[in-house]
Amino acid sequence: MGVNKRVAAIKPNAIRAFDDETSGIEGVLKLTLGEPDFTVPEHVKKAAIASIEADESHYAPAAGSVALRKAIHHFMLDRYGLSYDIDSEIIVTLGATEGIYDTFTAFINEGDKVLLPAPNFSMYDPTIELAGGEIVFVDTSDTGFLLTPEQLQAAIDEYGEKLTTVLLNYPANPTGVTYTAEQLSALADVLQGTNITVIADEIYSELTYNAPHTSIAKFLPEQTVILNGVSKSHAMTGYRIGFIVGPKQLVQPAAVLHQFTVTAASNPAMAGAAEALGSAQGKLDSKSMREAYRERRDYLVPALRKLGFEIPQPNGAFYVFAKIPAAYEQDDYAFSVDLAKRGKVAVIPGSVFNVGGEGYIRISYAASLDSLHEAVKRISNFLENY
């Protein structure tokens, strides 16, 4: 059978697989997926409906509608002080997921080394392998789950010109930690003058709790492409609208891949996204969601720490990465299965997220406060009767 060997070697998405495994358990409370529980704002839905009623049913430009690219330009400038040309430096993708595929495939040659700070979102690994790259995992579990300049320099010294790409995801999935402007500046100092491309997955950029988000592109503009979108900021996961922005010389190779794999995104979805990113109300929407997530985090983290879990402070996204207390099963997969079956709470095992994730569980607080209160109650009972 003519199956691509690299494709055949890839396993199904481990997060989805574990979610599927536990979803059939009767009465289980699911805190597994990064799926906002909010509905899409009404003005965004109306913009999508208006696009349908206006018969916008023909192919959009491959790079995305002009209206959405203008909205993305406004969004990046207004929120992060970064300016990108709407004609050559912005590509609308089918979610940030397509952005991951387009950029890795465009930038990686056979045998190139790609640095991933770990634990990391599990979708990066297979995409790198499909492109023929070789992953360099850097264990950040002893450095606050953040890549340090020393670790980055050590990898550059070890791999030299073979290290062509660095992936930075912040605020991070699965840990919820993020970088300060000072920390990003220090990483940029190490990368300055190299030929290394930085892919900055900033899909959770609107969900930061201690300080406004800063992009590494502020310090390293010519070497950085940013992946973002409306899935997390505006609860629009099903609309599948993301975007790639960066300097022309990096964005255009990804744009070629986008043309041949997707052609263009859906017009109604882009109209909704343009309203979300370009309007004053859209900015208020993401702010109100952020405050709701902050309230949930501020309840959940102390409550779990009281039960004995060690947790790095999540200053962004909507995840808690909790170390299983020493008195209990340290195989995070076995612990998570047991918690789902007997405790009726479904989470994601930390080992799914690679090096440094062993012995942890990821809990999504993209759920109501009532659900989180019930989850803590169930987890407490589960531990007491372990």
Automatic annotation (TrEMBL):
Key word Transferase present in the record?
yes
Could you say which EC number(s) this protein's record lists?
2.6.1.-
Could you name the domain of life of the organism this protein comes from? Bacteria
- Which InterPro entries does the record associate with it? Aminotransferase_I/II_large, AspAT/PAT-like, NHTrfase_class1_PyrdxlP-BS, PyrdxlP-dep_Trfase, PyrdxlP-dep_Trfase_major, PyrdxlP-dep_Trfase_small
Q: Looking at the keywords, is Transferase present?
A: yes
Identify the keywords attached in UniProt to this record, alphabetized.
Answer: Aminotransferase, Pyridoxal phosphate, Transferase
Provide one Gene Ontology biological process annotation: amino acid metabolic process
The GO terms this record gives for MF are: pyridoxal phosphate binding; transaminase activity
Supply the enzyme class, top level: transferase
Show where the Aminotransferase class I/classII large domain sits: 27-379
Q: Name one Pfam family in it.
A: Aminotran_1_2
Tell me the cofactors it needs: pyridoxal 5'-phosphate
Family assignment from sequence similarity: Belongs to the class-I pyridoxal-phosphate-dependent aminotransferase family.
Q: Which PANTHER family match?
A: AMINOTRANSFERASE, ASPARTATE AMINOTRANSFERASE
Its protein name is: Aminotransferase
